């Protein structure tokens, strides 16, 4: 198909195209659809000067462009069109020729339509005889408009404040981002107004603020008049400016004499004229970095309306706390609260009170509970509430509330403070998300002592003749002594609550050390552990923590909420994970038929190719000796492979005797040990035989494996290898250590990247095959341009040695894992007569008395995906273990309660062994730190320290070693060691145990070689019709749960074709039906709406015996020969022959025929 032209085609209207390209090229060639009125060259006379002003040229072009596609038929039926300038155009017809004519509003010329309906890819063109009049725009574009638009937007935004509607209606005004006030008021009906505009919707919560929708637009005074230079239409509200007519510019706003400005704003010396609330400006316009300062001659006082409201008025403005306000009124507490100098109220929200009453099955809160939420004589803002602070409530000194900080959230007792700093005239209100429960934390003891005075009162009377004296009362003094005490369940000088729930210290599972001198520590009962005795000790579960876990090889669902069930370790199964999985039991363990499956650990296996074959064990191919040195044949001979390691040439050419003599040595009977001591012998054939060690380290296999290519190698030079200690070189090249050599070499290989030399300094995420990180840095000072690895430990001495698998670099050292290092901790003896310090050399590990070469960690997932299925994610749990398999055990009786034999038994109960010194040392180097001594293998005791602490090993870092213990009845804890397995998990979209994973129904069909004919019919169906494509998508849809009956190739021949209706008849989309669910008489609804019938006999003509009936099931008379093949979105049963869909009504047949010839039988 010929490519369509755009609205800029060229054609014969060169001048018009030139104008359009210069002024409006991109919209006309890219956007649309448009209708363009194209004047002829003759009709464009007088427009040449437009090209000198791009804005005017664009405006002129837009006078000729209409949005949408208007053909001549549409133009004939309309009177008015609108151009992209917004100006309208009049459509009329000539009186004589009846041709269409178009005139722009305000113009005089009419353009006559000469040729119409020229189609382009983004619109339609009409040729007119003359251009439209270049009508001037009503308003000129200017920078003033942009400034006013920005000011308009800023006037609608209040920064640095998130105003809730309750706060908004309580203030008179606020300053917007335009630095001008927005005013708030409300109507008598409650309608909230913002500067006179109605609020339609309030409190729309956004991520960084709140949004209010208005019924109109807020106009800041600074942008009035909105339309520029139209003094005749809109009067300026700016004082002192006058509107004058200038012959050259029309109407303008002009500032009076003595003022400067553009008329919209006039500037002058206002210091003598302006007053602010009666204050005169002494000095004005003092500039600062963030604003302007004006000095005035008096202090401004706030208006009466800005005085903060009283308590009940403020609570009335907080509708979410109306219930609490009702309680304040009900118990007449407002007057008592406001009688205090200041106060702080912690008000629970309506939701909090309703939830509390519902949980407590109570009808109301009593007065004491309300008083417990009020603190008098202190105005506590949020910043005044500190962690651990306590304050007395209205209930008195014995009822205090505490403030605590948890994970950045401030709490009062256990209630979160969710809304803060709402001010009243004398106090502050904070909102709570929970009702405070009264806690009497102080139970002070008042002792009153009464003491008598030393003197009595004396009354004397003199009655002329009689003088009497009476002894009166004896004075007594009452002295009250207050002893400060905490109530039960509270501790410390502040009487803080013990750990646990309110009223239930230590959750009832222990005893709290409470009291004024108490520490608040919970002494847990038997079976419980934790700060608040909230957990079971390890290995226990149940509400009383008295049930013992029985998992042998797995993780127990322990704890108070646990049920004792077992989550088995990889490779184990059973109720208590007691049965090991034999990975080689079925299908040769997934190994090649030319390989031996060898069980390794439970659930794992290794595949080893048979003699004469090579490969990874999953795939084994026959070794072809002809590929190397022509199989030993003459260069002029043809080498033919006849079997594994056999060459037909030897026999054909009669050289077999020579070959046999080459395998024999005369004059000596050499034992194996003799061969290890010599390097060369002479065969009976007379040819020399060289004796050496085969380095079968599979390293070349790693480099050449396509899954790793391209690779970047960092190869130690010969000089670097020769520089290693002799012991290390002997270890690396010892025959029995070839596997360990491979692990060392993996630290030098970066997979899936060919990093060029110039990219090395910028490579920040290089990871080796061993899993370690490589860092590259540049040299400085006298080594500018040099490149170093791992903090200058190694220098790159040869660069960018390219080979077919990637790029190699030469380095001057041997790389090792930095986390394991090369040093071993010192060992000190306590024998002062033989004081010594032993330290293992680099790349060795041990206690100094015994040193062995470091065994570097290996991520088994890097090799064959850890034996997991290719569609599974592999996780080497041992490689990821931060303590490298070491864990600490303590006796249920407490710390240091196990003898050496009990320690070994405890480890065995955890499917582990007692850890060796070196195993604990590896864990310590992985930052394992535990200040608790435990038994180690070899009857020794010690513990690891990863950082210096004066209270742990006197600051020593390493293994604090108590040495071998003579008395094995000593009791300690124990360190155990257990190697974790590889965890295989099927990827999303797949199901299985990780060692075997199945995809969707289509993927499973594709993986079965015996279902290829049925699969071919499905693919052909999908290529021929829309229904077929929908059916194929359905098979891959992970949201469906379907049952598919697939005929095998022996029942569905290659030359037999199923119709689309027949294919869909094989699928039931109702549910997943396992074989055991397909009982006699079961019906399944198919995608066609028809039903499939399951029977245990083929039909009436076949009388099956009871044995046959129990073994064979049929679906629509086709036998199910293989069943329960799981897919991620359904299940597949293989049947002996295809199913035929019942006939359809004629209309359906016709629709099926329309879907394509393949859909028909």
Automatic annotation (TrEMBL):
Output compositional bias ranges, type Polar residues.
1150-1161
One cellular component GO annotation, for this chain's record?
membrane
From the Swiss-Prot or TrEMBL record, state where the protein is found: Membrane
Please give, as recorded in its UniProt entry, the membrane topology of this protein: Single-pass type I membrane protein
Query: Per the record, which residues fall in region Disordered?
Result: 1137-1161
Give the principal location in a single coarse category: membrane
Which SMART domains does the record match to this protein? Answer: EGF, FAS1, LINK
**Locate the Link domain: which residues?**
885-978
Disulfide linkages recorded for this protein, renumbered to the chain, are: 524-533, 549-566, 568-577, 907-976, 931-952
**Keywords noted in UniProt:** Disulfide bond, EGF-like domain, Glycoprotein, Laminin EGF-like domain, Membrane, Receptor, Transmembrane, Transmembrane helix
Superkingdom to which the source organism belongs: Eukaryota
Q: Which residues form the FAS1 domain?
A: 1-132, 308-436, 668-815, 998-1139
PROSITE patterns for the chain: EGF_1 (PS00022), EGF_2 (PS01186), EGF_3 (PS50026), EGF_LAM_1 (PS01248), FAS1 (PS50213), LINK_2 (PS50963)
Domain EGF-like: from-to ranges: 496-534, 541-578, 580-621
Q: Name one Pfam family in it.
A: EGF_3
PANTHER family with a match to the protein in the record: STABILIN (PTHR24038), STABILIN-2 (PTHR24038:SF0)
Q: What is this protein called?
A: Stabilin-2
Source species = Grus japonensis
